[in-house]
Amino acid sequence: MRTAVLLGFRLRQEVLEWSGAWWFLLTLVVQAVVAPLIGLFVWSAVYPDDPVIARYYVAVILVTLMTESFEQHTFSERIYDGTLSHELLRPQPVVIGVIGMNLAIRAWLTLLGAPIVLLTGIALHVGFDWSAVVRSAAYLLLAAVLVFLWTFLLALTAFWTDRVHAVVGFGSQLVFLFGGTAAPIGLLPDTWRRVAEVLPFYGMNGLPAEIASGGSGSMVYQLIWVVVLVAVVTVVWRIGVRRYTAVGS
Fold first, then answer.
1. CA separation, residue 233 to residues 16, 35, 95, 213 (Å)
2. By the 8 A CB rule, do 111 and 15 touch?
3. Inter-residue contact 61 to 36 (CB < 8 Å)
4. What percent of the residues of the chain are helix, what percent strand, and what percent coil, each to the nearest 5?
5. What CA–CA distance (Å, rounded) separates 209 from 62?
6. What would the pLDDT profile of 77-134 be if each residue is shown by its tens digit?
7. Which residues are CB-contacts of 57 (< 8 A; sequence separation ≥ 6)?
8. Predicted confidence (pLDDT) at residue 196 exceeds the cutoff of 80
9. DSSP readout, 70-104?
10. Suppose 178 and one of 8, 56, 154, 201 were both cysteines; which one would form an S-S bond, judging by CB atoms 3.0 to 4.6 Å apart?
11. What's the pTM value of the predicted model, to 2 decimals?
């Protein structure tokens, strides 16, 4: 209960703070929608008579906006400038502040990006089965958790290297290639499709979009990766903090 109250307070604080950064947030929105739009244009040209392609990519745009994470900026920089020490001294888990800022940025991106999603859908005459959209909500929630855990895990490498942006950038490219943005994984060659179905990236992006567009998929696959990433993040966090405090930053 106390954690929920603290998270709610931090979320409200971050939403208000980010409300003054309209132009920067719009830049993040444009950055988030470019890759799915390119995928939409390319695959709509390849399959001009398939309405599922447009429906899928409109869903991917929305999923991307709702799950974007920037912990390499919001968290790693605190390790570099030493202000993480202040967070460690507070009587609350450090991750509450990280999650609060993450949710605030996602809320603003979703709000500012919604007109793009709406206009794209109208322009392409995209229609959704609303029962499928409702069914995709649970998949979307797990996708949001997976993206946060993956980005936060990569951001933790800031304890050991000053090249965290390159590390997170590499991780983002894996999500782009195997997550269903570069191409719906059903259109990949068999070998690459099987690889994509095992890795966690499809559950971060393509799976909830596919469910929203009328497809099917396993939520167990997402849950397994959530458990795995939580365990890995916990171990890496403890080792990293031990190293950080030992160095005396």
1. 29, 28, 11, 32
2. no
3. yes
4. 80, 0, 20
5. 8
6. 989 988 888 888 888 888 999 999 999 999 999 999 999 999 999 998 888 889 999 9
7. 36, 37, 39, 40, 43, 44, 209
8. yes
9. -HHHHTHHHHHHSTHHHHHHSSS-HHHHHHHHHHH
10. 201
11. 0.93
* Backbone dihedral angles phi then psi of residue 129, each to the nearest 5 degrees: -85, 115
The DSSP letter of residue 185 is G
Structure tokens belonging to residue 109? 């991106």
How many residues does this entry show for the chain? Answer: 249
How far is the C-alpha of 113 from the C-alpha of 62, rounded, in Å?
A: 8
Structure tokens at 186: 């059903």
Query: d(Cα 67, Cα 89) in Å, to the nearest integer?
Result: 29
Amino acid at 217: G
12: Cβ–Cβ under 8 A, 6 or more apart, which residues? Answer: none
96, 75 Cβ separation under 8 angstroms: no
What tokens does 164 get?
């965290």
Tokens representing residue 142 in the block = 């797990």
Amino acid at 244: Y
Number of H helices, E strands in the chain: 13, 0
